[in-house]
Known about the structure:
Largest sheet: 8 strands, antiparallel
Helix content: 25-40%
Radius of gyration: 26 Å
Strand order of the largest sheet: 11-12-13-16-23-20-19-18
Shape: globular
Number of helices: 21
Number of strands: 23
Strand content: 15-25%
Amino acid sequence: MPTHFTGPLGAAFGLSAASRPERRAAFARLLVDPARALPVVPAAERVVWTPGSGASPGGIDAVTVEAVLVRGEKDRGTPWPLPLASTAARLHRDGDRTAHEELVLGRQRRLSRAVVAAAVTLDDAWVDEVADGIWAVCEQSTWCWPAHDDAFATRGWVLPDRARPYLDLGAGEVAGQLAWADHVLGDALDARYPGLRARVRAEVRERVLDPFVARRDWHWIGLDGDVHNWNPWIHGNVLVAALRLLDDPADAELRARVVDLVVEGLDRYVAVLPADGAIDEGYEYWWNGACRAIEALDVLAHATGGALDALDPESPVPALRATVAFPHRMHLGGDWYLDLADGRARPPAGQPWHALHRAARRAGDEHALRHAASYRVPGEPVADEDSGLGRLLRAVTDVDWLEAGPAEAPLPRDVWLPSTQVLLARERAGTPRGLTLAIKGGHNGEHHNHNDVGSFVVASDGVPVLVDAGRPTYTAQTFGPDRYAIWTMQSSWHNVPEIAGTPQGVGEGFAARDVVPGDGALTLDLAGAYPVDGLQAWRRTARLERGAGHDEDRGGQRARGRACVTVHDAWDLDAAAPAAAVVHLMVAGDVTTSPGLLRVVPLGGATPVVVRWPEDVPVDVTVRRLDDPMLAEVWGETLTRLTLDVTDRTELTLVVEQDDTITQEGAL
Length: 668
């Protein structure tokens, strides 16, 4: 294992050449006292913890506090959620992981609500509620989610090995939550529950900090170069736990050691973050990947008195500043985003926007700042407990976020991300009105991959019409050997061809070739994504024609000066190769078809669209009922797939336009 930081953080912090003992000595010298190490003041600071008028620098946000208290009051007097052996074992019996995880997360959300209520009121009854929650979590047999624990793989157990704690996302989240609760309410807990804080420290040491140090083969560390969102998510929580809970002077050396390993781990993540800041897992996973890294480094900057600040505008880590722009670059309009991999086209709007706002302030990115502020609605809560206690506490104590006024989302006109080969183009900057085109190249070995090389999305007024379905609820199958038996993961349910009855292959080797971006356009060859002998090329060009001077014959109809999206495919198959080929289109909304024509009334009242192709192309229509709640929440009851049979052709052109003459009544 290398003993030097070889990535960008090592360079930014001036530690690239330092030995491990030298680094740990530097951390021991730079780290502030544990009582001041986290960037939220304790509840004893009543000037801060007295609710203000909603944006008062003299207090936290009253609207958020009131909402949390209302939910917390409903909790009190009711049994705490109780994860059971039977709910944990369901993963290995029927594949259901959600039921158990919701019990665990329900317990943690309730504890977060209680911490805020106790911090605001310092009422003994709320401190009791916090103590009950902490005690329940400490008594929980494992903090690891069953889907991640290795006891089944190593011993055939359907329940965890208590003597061998597994450090995953769930365990990290609990350790971080307990550290934040201890930091904010330490004095109140000591006064009313002497000994409880010692229990917290013992449990976090045994379940998280000691395993983190003792085992250096955790897959999420990224020693093999495959670094994904687990890395910053877990490292960030370990950092918070070590900074606050290793507060015994006898633990000073261990504290520096853990911080050293955390920064080394984060260095691996930042090292593979591309220069354009893109996340191959897509927008929704940015919040629990790159954003987690930014938040962890923000905590580190605070804990070192600003000495180690990777987000400083002068810091030589440009990828960190670039990734701050990723969310607004993937924005289609409203609550709709370009969904790649396991993301959703309409993810929950309640993201930790304060974290993006804070990062944008520090990185000096005005567009990212506006994007975050566009979700700051005066009179509404600034955060909730769903994102975790640390994020909730940061939100309600961030004065700049509380004072942020509403802003318009930037909605850039053109986006090209070479690392993921994703292009997005809209008619005009600053507005979702009109058509937006997005298309990706990439490969089929990306994190949370769907087989979607060459797939495209077209949105009308920011609402997807030709769509990527996204992902259903996670089960044991999602990350198992049968992942690609799930229909949403297959290329057959994306906007790509199927050749000789063969969908795209799985793995990094199945990739786009000859990818060339242009003005509102992307050209690429999809042949490399298909394990089809005799397929020489399948060249696709997707283009947004913005309307100026546009004059084109479309099946006998001409349109001048009107924006459209064109997708042109041309392919070469050996004469001896099977010639059967189809092109799939996934459609959301109410649809009507006729020869050579698709009419769609999109979701949410967006301007209808028409899609045209040659009238002699046979079309099969499949209506897919969405029985998964996660998919139905985004798309409603159904999605429609059109299958265009192009067996007897060597090229196909699709043209998409808005058509405001179509009404809801006119669609089927």
